[in-house]
Amino acid sequence: MNKKVAVKFKNLGLIDYKEAWDYQETLFNKVVAAKQSNRDHREHKPTPNYILFCQHPHVYTLGKSGKETNLLISEDFLKSKGASFYHINRGGDITYHGPGQIVGYPILDLDNFGLSIKSYIHNLEEVIICSLGHFGITATRLEGATGVWLDADNPARSRKICAIGVRTSHWVSMHGFALNVNTDLAYFDYIVPCGITGKAVTSMQKELGKEMDIDEVMQVLKEEFENIFGMEIGTK
Which residues are marked as active site? Predict the structure, then answer.
């Protein structure tokens, strides 16, 4: 049986988007530096891996391939809604983060898991799909689009419950997923989510008709990360 890969977990709580992004960059650079040191010294020391969970105050983020026209409101209106806006270095288009949404940032050395970028994203989607199944929500993938969807095979009813956008360099990942748990979905009305028109957005709360325990959902997500990636998550 293959040995599980050690991963350090940290819950950042409700944290400003830029502060979390800077922290991600610090950890990302640490992992890349460890890989470079191994190459330079022809060593095989373990490289660190991290998973961060958090929530953000209202914020819109636009990926490298995104279009600013997918933000449908003015800067003044944005401020009136208490929201901020950032151009960021992940793939994908525009998305929303806010309270009641679990945002996950895996900073992983994909070489530790034997994963390609495509299989890494597939695994991320699988973590979400299996976690939602734990709560009685049947979720799937939508062909040609990243993320996790409900009723993906029915164009009239398909709706997105989790966005995924990642950045990788030197086979190290950052950014990640945003799962709508108790999210205020009205904030999605001000964007074209992920640049895809004509698709609805939903949340666990909306689908199940009750407010969810965020900590319980986080615990299930951690367990599914361990199951699907073959990792052992600790806090030290």
Answer: 194
Q: How confident is the model at residue 155 (pLDDT cuts 50, 70, 90)?
A: confident
Tokens of 14: 């409700």
Is residue 1 scored above 60 in pLDDT? no
CB 235 within 8 A of CB 10: yes
Domain-embedded: residue 236: no
Report d(CA 143, CA 85) in Å as an integer: 29
How far apart are alpha carbons 20 and 107 in whole angstroms? 12
Domain tally, the chain: 1
Which amino acid is it at 5? Answer: V
Asked, for residue 174, whether it belongs to a domain, the answer is yes
**Per-residue pLDDT reduced to its tens digit, 4-13:** 999 999 999 9
Rounded to whole angstroms, how far apart are CA atoms 67 and 64?
9
Indicate whether 235 belongs to any domain: no
Domain residues for 213?
A: 5-229
Model confidence at 69, in pLDDT bands (50, 70, 90)? confident
DSSP for 177-228, written as a single string: EEEESS--GGGGGGB-GGG-TT-EE--HHHHHTS---HHHHHHHHHHHHHHH
β-pairing, 50-55 vs 101-107, is antiparallel
What CATH number did the domain enclosing 94 receive?
A: 3.30.930.10
Distance CA 127, CA 228 (A): 7
pTM, two decimal places? 0.91
